[in-house]
Batch of 2 targets.
Target 1
Amino acid sequence: MKVNTTSKVKNKPILSNKATDVSNGVNVLVVGSVAYDTIQTPSGKRDNILGGSAVYFAYGASFFSPVSLVSVVGRDFSFEEELELLKARNVDLRGLVIKKGATFKWAGRYVGDMCYAETISHSLGVFGKFQPIIPSYYRNIPYVFLANGSPKLQKKILDQIKKPKLVFADTMNYWIENEKRALLHLIEQIDGLIVNNDEVRLLTGMYHTITAAREILKWGPQILIIKKGEHGALLVTKDDFFAVPGYPIEVVRDPTGAGDSFAGGMMGYLAKIDSPSLPNLKKAILHGNVVASFTIEDFGLEKLKQLSPKQVEERYKKLLGMMRL
Amino acid sequence: MKVNTTSKVKNKPILSNKATDVSNGVNVLVVGSVAYDTIQTPSGKRDNILGGSAVYFAYGASFFSPVSLVSVVGRDFSFEEELELLKARNVDLRGLVIKKGATFKWAGRYVGDMCYAETISHSLGVFGKFQPIIPSYYRNIPYVFLANGSPKLQKKILDQIKKPKLVFADTMNYWIENEKRALLHLIEQIDGLIVNNDEVRLLTGMYHTITAAREILKWGPQILIIKKGEHGALLVTKDDFFAVPGYPIEVVRDPTGAGDSFAGGMMGYLAKIDSPSLPNLKKAILHGNVVASFTIEDFGLEKLKQLSPKQVEERYKKLLGMMRL
């Protein structure tokens, strides 16, 4: 099933108030990295903390629905406590495999407005040879997030899933520059692509974001989400725009994981509601935006670890208030 | 009279649908520059086109209410046609004086994301010695905009106005760095300050925008508007936030004048309604945002010159639609 984004139904208030009626929702599958991050920002530095796209996504989605995670770590991995916390939040870690070798390590810094991370060093370790096999008991999961990675690999993962309801993928400049053909092939088969302004331009060779966004929608996906960091996000569909302002944060300590926890919050909410429609997608984006706004308030997962679904809901209501005339 | 921004009335729908009932509104006074601009952007170059804060403001406000302009030009000034167009839009130019000397000239370029203009050269000419005398017939104008300029001068202008209803001021990093004491003195006496993120930080020495914004509100003004370029704007009052997303523009050709035409659209709309309240201020900010979104679609005043109030209203409705869940 696909999200119906045509103008015919866009104002139809499908399930508009069901968010609080559904307690569990269906499953979300994420395939991505689990990593050791070393992060420097104007607020300080942290060495070898738990990170990675799959982890941030899982934390973000866990406020709303059960999550199944597929990733790989090395034998040096030692974040048992954090993983127990994920399990306690209904994150299924049976898809996390341990291989001989080292866990993915990334070191980066953010300066000034912290719009971009500057990579100081990275070492892919076992993640570099990752050929994920989706366990049979994960293959019917309806909501699927392909975190940033080689598009060839993303495609291989997707091919293992049976009739997903909704597939979103993330990518980055490296894949656009080095594996564009494979990426275009993947894009044809997904429902939604999550990118930033620069990636939209790089992908299309078009300077103006909106023109470029419309071009990408011709290639297959029905949904394009343009992340704008602290400035929020923009949803572009064939017939519609939805502009999400950034939630004004008092203290931005570390932007790492903002994009993945945004995607997690969004897809977790969609899985909770389990009825893809444009109004629900808009609410999902706002929930993702709220989760990401918490993520960046502290280093790594510090903020998300102590956060309750109630706090997420409270900030969601505040954000709605800020958007109200 | 001051805008009531307290939480007691913030949800009271004062005049919420009166925008279209008021045809003329009261006057807005702008004191600022009239200039020759030479502009380079990724979209091209224009030499010696009409610009200046007062001109952009007046064009922006003229969609909603009569405007009175106070500024100075040199004897080299030759934009009669453009000024006739302003007059036709109910802009009173009796306050525009001609002095011996040259008109203010500015040359700048925008690169990449065009977030900032890089000044290539500027020559203040007669604007450098500008000591504006507000004509007696302007001194009762209720809505006043003090465009970017020396805060000492802004203060002198304000002192000549009799009981204004609402005074907004703009400033820039130069004045914060070189005339901070005078600026703080001015800020005490105005209702609203319009700044960008960097200026908020520079003014307070605080890194985090929201904390800094709250600090500025302690100094006197009830309203702080943080411009975020193509990412929209944020309204901060003691008890409230209002986040305006950027209107997604297909083609951004030249950001010059965005801030001043935003201020013009906002104050022009407030003057049209002539009933300051928080809901009206929010609508005014959205109207300013819409006017600015047109400004940046073409060089200088090209877009605003051919624009009708109906087109502004249509885009305003589109923007509302994009913000709706």
Note: Confidence is low (pLDDT under 50) at residues 1-23 of chain B.
Target 2
Amino acid sequence: MSKPAETAPESALGTPSEAHRGPLARLPRGFADRGPADIAATERMLAAIREVYDLYGFEAVETPFVEYTDALGKFLPDQDRPNEGVFSFQDDDDQWLSLRYDLTAPLARHVAENFDKLPKPYRSYRCGWVFRNEKPGPGRFRQFMQFDADTVGASSVAADAEICMMAADTLERVGIARGDYAVKVNNRKVLDGVMEAVGLDGEDDAGRRLIVLRAIDKLDKVGAEGVAALLGAGRMDPSGDFTKGAGLAAAQIERVLAFTAAGGSDVAATLANLRTVVAGSPRGEEGVSELAEIAALVAAAAYDDGRVVIDPSVVRGLEYYTGPVYEAELTFEVKDEDGRPVRFGSVAGGGRYDGLVSRFRGEPVPATGFSIGVSRLLAALKVLGKVGAEKTVGPVVVLVMDRERAADYQRLVKTLRDAGIRAEMYLGDGKMKPQMKYADRRGGVCVIIQGSDEQARGEVQIKDLVIGATLASAPDREAYLKAQAEAQFAVPEAEMVAAVRKVLARHG
Amino acid sequence: MSKPAETAPESALGTPSEAHRGPLARLPRGFADRGPADIAATERMLAAIREVYDLYGFEAVETPFVEYTDALGKFLPDQDRPNEGVFSFQDDDDQWLSLRYDLTAPLARHVAENFDKLPKPYRSYRCGWVFRNEKPGPGRFRQFMQFDADTVGASSVAADAEICMMAADTLERVGIARGDYAVKVNNRKVLDGVMEAVGLDGEDDAGRRLIVLRAIDKLDKVGAEGVAALLGAGRMDPSGDFTKGAGLAAAQIERVLAFTAAGGSDVAATLANLRTVVAGSPRGEEGVSELAEIAALVAAAAYDDGRVVIDPSVVRGLEYYTGPVYEAELTFEVKDEDGRPVRFGSVAGGGRYDGLVSRFRGEPVPATGFSIGVSRLLAALKVLGKVGAEKTVGPVVVLVMDRERAADYQRLVKTLRDAGIRAEMYLGDGKMKPQMKYADRRGGVCVIIQGSDEQARGEVQIKDLVIGATLASAPDREAYLKAQAEAQFAVPEAEMVAAVRKVLARHG
């Protein structure tokens, strides 16, 4: 894989004047600012998600951005060195602190710390930013938002089934049509069973198990042949990069591939295939039984129409999963960088992590949860045209014709605001032209003008910027005059609010 | 001042079992979790603030939590050592990164970086968490929320006046009554003029100026006599702690005190007093003129009824202010720790910071802004009884009478949710008692019961937990029987939704 693009060298950034010696104004690598449209679209989407979670009986709880490093644990995928991937710093008492890298580890700490106070099972949700100390790349940020829901204290897979169905409801609630997504369910125990069946269940095999896991996870990208190579000696990709394989023998590779290909024509067939693959492994069989139980619950609630499906190809990278794992995938196609159609892919995922709370308490505390990649889901809604089309109406701008009369203009603005109309007085320098340009740039629908003549008559001029912009293209003189009369007209001050309302109504 | 309480030693924290060797579940010092009531109350308050800012023509923009350390600058009050007060860590390219300590410095970076793309003047707002690497204490957190509004690119003090009036509108919009607050305005230039008048305007006097500033800021706490001591040789507080003074001579002290006492019976008197205090300092006189201009704008919009007032006692600790400074104070009284009545005090503040964007660009970029301490304002609303009284209704809990029938109970839950009723199936272990206890703990109004008898009849039992709890106190047998009939009754499954709605309506 080629390295992600580095940012330009400092000298190429910013536009300070020649003589300037101050710091450069630049975002840190991998971080981003957010503008009003993005913030508003995100807020609307989060509100919709919250509604569904509330309906399911989950309640909001939030943890801080900073945790003791040891409380977070080392559960990031693809991170072999300690604390790799995490932003950490030392407190003044020498204890290590870290920015949270997900919302699950902090929830585990919260539940363990407040165990006796919480109702159990404990259903909760939270939305927040998380941080990864990784090389940034295109679309790959070091700060991003997740929206999680978790049920702690329920060992029954009914809890997993519920979260999968809630995931489906959530996707539909935010605007993904039924048929454009699937919540795919698998079980780590089944995977463990496969590992057992191929003799990779020893303590010393942890490294090779991880390689196998990652190989399976690449099925979509490299196909069965590629996975076979990764399970065996290794694989050379088209760019010439070689990835070392797990070194499995042919019979072992076959068994793992049989697992990835276990998806049948219906649930019963898939479950039967899986039972064959894990035959002889009690843990694997337990996993298949759990999947069967989930399938039954999903069918009872009629979510077995493609909304929630059993799919052996789901792996999930995080090491802390212990049972059912699930992934919400958008199945509609988009064009990739080279213009080829590809599925939009995963926007959320989760699974059962029975060890995460337990490690604080030294007693079993089952838990399962689900995390939405907020930016990723929002990107999908943009592709579908569900967000981004909204127009925010700019403020009505009261122009400053005479700087001495700022107090008068302030009063006009106040009158508009008191009537609930978004309005402001122009606060910059310059005469008419920059003021009109400003109003335009803010997306304002009209401006208020009161020069000395208008003031003498107790009037204001209202200039409709939208109609004004179309004047030049009037088909004939009559149309022009009509538009001109609508584009700018005078009213007594007392009628300003009503007139502005009329102009605002014109343009929806 | 006594040291803030340290947290308990590790051994006293958490309740892991004896044999447990895992990490301890504990929040880092100075950080807090937030529960559902707090989150909901905060969200409501933030939405109200957002409404006012929108009305004033401001638009949302957000920056990330992490900035290059040099971009943030060192503007924290009471921090003499470099990077003191800030959480910092090094990136893999050796550049220093910091968690933002306020929302102003990042905004300055954002505006400087996107200068040509933004409309100017640029009105924007943002709400977010900020971080201070300070010793935590009671009510003093290392992560807290601010809600800022700023106008960049407007040199006119009309921008400052607007923000002060917006602050007043905001306080009223969230529930603070007129008369219970004041937005107090002062001007750094007037302070500079005082410094000039007492001969403390040299480059070498920066340290002493800071001591003078802090002395003035303590007027409320230590009185004029205390301030005089802090301006002179120093002051011994009742606990015996000695604070070294600024070492001013008697005449200088008198002049500074005259400044703090410049507040007159009306605006005109205050301004006249201030003119006397800064006489001979052009910068001081400019400051007084700016205050006069703000007062005129405030009067024109009729906010001079105590909502926005000129008050020479306002100082503001941050070093980056260059002109008008303002502080929103709640003037109603609350009891302090010792039961004595004190004013609630400051909940927001801000001022003009003309140098903060400029330092990136090497050209003047005027700016002014205002920051609400979100937790502090929320605490005030709690004191006033404006938040905290809301009751969130817990979910309807469908009890699990027979584990084999989970799919049936799941279906009942689905029916309730489809009708928009917050509902869930009990997911824990245990029979009737723990299930009822759980429903109670969640604040549920009723539970649904379907044992084999009910199932055979196609019915469900609905148990009203609120009436159920009052049964024991029924005055007579007749009342008891009536209440009992309402507290638990059977309906056909098809009528479950209607019956649950009736029970929910009973209890508002």
Note: Chain B touches chain A through 112 residues (CB under 8 Å).
